Amino acid sequence: MDLPTKKFTVTRADLVRYAGASGDFNPIHWSERFATKVGLPGVIAHGMLTMALVGRAVTDWAGAPDAVLDYSVRFSRPVPVPDDETGTEIEVSAQVKTTTDEGHTVLAITAVCAGEKVLSQARATVRTTRLGK
Amino acid sequence: MCCQHLGNTRLHRASPAAFYDSSMPLDPSAVGRSYPPTPPYLVGREKIREFAKAIGATDPAYHDPEAAQALGYADVIAPPTFPTVVSFASNNAVVDDPDLAIDYSRVVHGDQRFQYTRPIVAGDEIVGRQVIAEIISRGGHDFITTRTDITDAAGEPVAVAWSKLVIRGEG
């Protein structure tokens, strides 16, 4: 079963807000000068922000904010965030992979930004009482 | 392999890389090494709201104590990746461990996993206990996985976080 695709916009302002809320003030997430100096294409989103946005998709699909039992990702590519009004977009989709012995649902998740997979091997195990709501 | 650098303010410091041979793979005998528990972190209601707002999570259970109580929790609950606020800080203990001699300017965040016993709830006083779970050297890169057990004031499990850090080789 394919779950409905969700889209998340990430702007520079979002990165600043996430840095403050999470305590991750690594300058690669706010300084173009620093990011390019260490060989990145420019300022990139916090991997943990991408994971958090995908987490929103997971709780939405599961239909409850406390439904997630296990959640794992691999950060396969950076998410560059341009310094403009529109930012960038992460598109998140998932398939129901399997049901565990306990009756929980395992989702295989895909997150794409600018045509590239930014997460690989992303999985979530959720309680499924209201899946797909 | 190009991911998110870890470690915040340390990137401003001078790199100690010149003082040791960073081509040496990490010593696998460090697997099992544990670190002192983090100081207790008192989870504030406003901190959860701030974190939820920063990621655009609007579910009432993250913001409204009554909505969380309707789900059976004492106060607002945190979104799934909130434990990073604690595990991120405790990863610094590993990256700063002088015995490991990790060149933090080469560290990127490779993988992240959370396993939950229950959501973090405002009012929790949580502690992270960290252990090195795995060290692999492959293709000139080192991969170190830390496991952080997050417990509440009663010592009951709340969540477990695994972070795989990639220490990129030279060139």
Describe the structure.
The complex is a heterodimer of chains A (133) and B (171). Chain A has 133 residues and is of the alpha+beta class. Chain A has one domain (2-126): Roll (Thiol Ester Dehydrase, Chain A). Helix content of chain A is 25%, strand content 36%. Chain A is built from three helices and six strands, in the order E-H-H-H-E-E-E-E-E. Chain A has helices spanning 12-22, 32-37, 47-62, and strands at 2-10, 68-75, 88-99, 105-113, 116-117, 119-126. In chain A, strands 1, 2, 3, 4, 5 and 6 form a six-stranded antiparallel sheet that branches. Chain A is elongated. In chain A, 43% of the residues are buried. Helices cover 16% and strands 29% of the residues of chain B. In chain B, strands 1-3-6-5-4-2 form a six-stranded antiparallel sheet, covered by helices on one side. In chain B, a hairpin with a 2-residue loop joins strand 4 and strand 5. Chain B is elongated and about 55 Å long. Mean pLDDT of chain B is 85; it is low at 1-21. The interface between A and B is large, with 44 and 44 residues.
